Automatic annotation (TrEMBL):
InterPro entries: MetI-like (IPR000515), MetI-like_sf (IPR035906). The chain crosses the membrane at residues 29-49, 88-112, 124-144, 156-177, 198-220, 275-296. One of its GO terms (biological process) is transmembrane transport. This is Carbohydrate ABC transporter permease. One of its GO terms (cellular component) is plasma membrane. CDD domains: TM_PBP2. Keywords: Cell membrane, Membrane, Transmembrane, Transmembrane helix, Transport. It is found in: Cell membrane. It comes from Anthropogastromicrobium aceti.
């Protein structure tokens, strides 16, 4: 008898959630809108990709096109003609991996401490972290701290240490940890686990969506880093240049050469791939991130929507 009642309830639930004709029309409209919007967002990237493989003369005469009107690899040859590009790639990839890892260690540790209800100083710690979002010492104070006190000028650590933590990411991670039932940690403490064990073996495995989301934020910050190279690394230590900063340097040189008389550089503005080079640098710079994102997309979407689901 109980089994029949259970089956009846399941049937009623399925019948209740069954979509009507108007629901199907609305869902179809939503899918159509998202599809069109995605295509519109994809068009600029395709224009950049196609233009990067277009000869400079054809690009100047015909403009930007998704399909190259005259295929050419001159822009990419100019990008990789510099022997510093592989070194810059290595620096950028290394700082992104190492920086993201230690940033997440610090962020998860601070966020978990503030999410534990029996931690008496969690309010003071949260206020201190939030205060740094409102006020800071400014550029001059940061420069003096980095160069005179920490002595990080012309040092690869200057690309890592100043970005180890972000107050906003810590508070986001704290809110994510706070949504995890406290009974999980309490049951683990009864079994003799300490806070570090609880964090590593219980909290982190069920927090992968939040960790992937915040980790992607940190990875993008380290990958796009160029300003610290401008401030703290001299040209005599160019081996520490990041990819973004080195590409900027090369682009300035290309633009300078394109604006000089033909006799001065042996080329003219139509043979030097100035515009195509700009497009090629975009592809080179964002390529690894585009390849990484599909592997994190599932966790990234869950991390963005978890607040609404648990709210």
């Amino acid at each position: 008898m109980a089994k029949k009642e259970k089956q009846k309830k399941q049937y009623d639930a399925k019948k209740h959630i069954q979509m009507t004709g108007s629901d199907r029309v609305m869902n179809g409209g939503f899918y159509l809108f998202i599809t069109v919007f995605s295509i519109i967002c994809l068009i600029p990237f395709l224009l950049v990709l196609g233009s990067s493989f277009t000869a400079e003369r054809a690009l100047t005469q015909n403009g930007y096109n998704i399909w190259p009107s005259e295929f050419s690899l001159d822009a990419y040859k100019l990008v990789f003609v510099s022997g510093d590009i592989p070194q810059a790639y290595l620096i950028t990839v290394g700082t992104t991996i190492v920086g993201t890892f230690f940033s997440m260690v610090f962020t998860c540790g601070a966020a978990y401490a503030m999410s534990v209800k029996n931690f008496k100083s969690r309010g003071v710690l949260a206020l201190f972290i939030y205060f740094t979002m409102l006020f800071n010492g400014g550029l001059v104070a940061n420069y003096l701290l980095t160069t005179k006190f920490l002595h990080l000028q012309n040092n690869i650590l200057v690309l890592l240490l100043p970005s180890f933590c972000n107050a906003w990411n810590i508070l986001l991670m704290r809110n994510f940890f706070s949504g995890i039932p406290a009974s999980l940690a309490e049951s683990a403490k009864i079994d003799g686990a300490n806070d570090i064990t609880i964090l590593i073996k219980i909290i982190i495995p069920i927090s992968l969506p939040g960790i992937a989301t915040i980790g992607l934020f940190y990875a993008l910050t380290y990958w796009n880093e160029w300003y610290k190279c401008l401030l703290y690394i001299d040209s005599s230590h160019s081996q520490y240049y990041t990819l973004q900063y080195l590409i900027q340097q090369i682009l300035r040189q290309v633009n300078y050469a394109a604006n000089q008389p033909a006799e001065a550089v042996g080329l003219n503005s139509l043979t030097l791939p100035t515009y195509a080079y700009r497009m090629a640098t975009i592809i080179v710079a964002i390529g690894p991130i585009i390849l990484l994102y599909p592997f994190l997309q599932k966790y990234f979407v869950q991390g963005l929507t978890v607040g609404s689901v648990k709210g």
